[in-house]
Amino acid sequence: MALSRPVEWRIDDRPVGYEAAVAAMEDRVRAIRQDGAPDLVWLLEHPPLYTAGTSADPAELLAPDRFPVFRTGRGGRYTYHGPGQRIAYAMIDLQARGLGVRDYVCGLEDWLTRTVARFGLVGERREGRIGVWVRHAGVERKIAALGVRVRRWVAFHGIALNVEPDLEHFDGIVPCGIEGFGVTSLAAEGITASMPEVDSALRASFQEVFG
Predict the structure, then answer these.
(1) Can you tell me the distance from the alpha carbon of 194 to that of 155, in angstroms, rounded to the nearest whole number?
(2) Of 31, 105, 115, 188, which one's alpha carbon is 20 to 30 angstroms from that of 161?
(3) Is 106 a catalytic residue?
(4) R_g over Cα of the chain
(5) Contact at 8 Å (CB) between 46 and 123?
(6) For the whole model, what pTM was predicted?
(7) Where is 146: in which H helix or E strand?
(8) What would the pLDDT profile of 41-94 be if each residue is shown by its tens digit?
(9) Which of 69, 87, 159, 176 is catalytic?
């Protein structure tokens, strides 16, 4: 069982620029490793943008001029971030919690499945398709993505849950390099949830998974 550790929560009500968010994460990772700062989960939204992970294939960027594109050190391929999507950046000391990287990634997926379950959805994992998926009329669609970077056993970046984003914005990329499957959101599944309600569910589910 993973060891418990203090966690600070931060919520930004206004969209945060991507470069500013990455710089802030880098600072916190350094503080965790060097100064013993507590872990941090940062809840926010970004303005519309695409990010390219370390495995991104340029052919999967279908509309390069639609939104700003940022190269990022997290794992994975292209993803979209924008208003109506709850980002949870988690800066977590894996070593202090006794977690391996694979265990942590599974924990992030568990965190998401428990969160959507609080709204009556069954979130599922799929081998070879990282993230969380829901079924609608027999069709699988992705409702949440995740991407992680680890530096000296401190993990950062995190998860993105589609609450009520403009799903057409995903058309400019092949999301996470996975073709043949669409994306969805809580709103598209008929669930009306405010961002504070989603935040409350994320906090409660995080506690269940990570302590």
Answers:
(1) 28
(2) 31
(3) no
(4) 16
(5) no
(6) 0.93
(7) strand 139-151
(8) 999 999 999 998 888 889 999 999 999 999 988 878 889 999 999 999 999 999
(9) 176
